[in-house]
Amino acid sequence: MHWPSQREGFRAMPQQSTAPPTIVFPMGGKGERMGAIEVPNKALVELPGARKTLLEYSRLTWDVDVERLVLLMPQEADESFAETKDFVSSLDLRCDVRYSPDPSAKCGRTKALAAAIENGSIPGDRFFIVHNPDDVVINYPGSFAADVVRRHRENAAKGCAATVVTTDSTVHTFTGFRIDGERVTRIEHNPVCDTKAHVGITVFEPELAGEIVKASRDESSSDFEKDAFEKLAAESRLGYFLLPVACWIAVNTPKDLSLFEKRFRGGA
Known about the structure:
Layout: E1 22-26, E2 46-47, E3 52-53, H1 54-61, E4 68-73, H2 79-89, E5 96-101, H3 109-118, E6 128-131, E7 135-137, H4 144-157, E8 162-167, E9 170-171, E10 175-180, E11 183-189, E12 192-193, E13 198-204, H5 208-216, H6 224-234, E14 238-243, E15 248-250, H7 254-263
Parallel strand pairs: 1-4, 1-6, 4-5, 8-14
Antiparallel strand pairs: 2-3, 6-13, 7-15, 8-13, 9-12, 10-11
């Protein structure tokens, strides 16, 4: 698809936003890999040990001044929409909560994000953070939120329009083989790859809101990571924040819930 270039709308140096950020949680997925769950949305699954839902836990990860949460929801016609909204209303999320329904079924995150911008759920005067609630930050040494915001402001001052949170390495859950000639000479269980992995958290400067809306009008648009990152990287306008791999768990399956319980030490 076509993502607008710098000449078509990006400013060379973003004007930094000083208003409190908006936190955006995509919650439109069905979470089939989690198996049978008793809540209407995967983000409402309780994390064992923490006694908090994925949504609550990820909200507490952002311990900076936050005025608004935006939940990207399934279509209003989806039976889970009302159930999810009722469940969320019972939680103490400590700020204003806005619900932005998907514009169509299986629309992809670019269109879901664009809909939230167009309906005013995401304000246009501040940077916003998109965080998949099933990407869990755990046992971070210090304030993850403060460190990410500080790094993003540094990146923005140098001309970056977005900051991605990445791990310092990735552990693959399979058995690796070192092969020399015609024989396997070494086996490595759960091998580590040095390529940095996106952990489902991105900080966007407000100037990108209009570009996301423009990109969403392309029928081939699907996920903003695919739609935007390559172009921003080519223009040297994509910054990063490095998160230790031990401080991240992607909670997609019951096994991941067990891993969280094993590693949880009592704080987000």
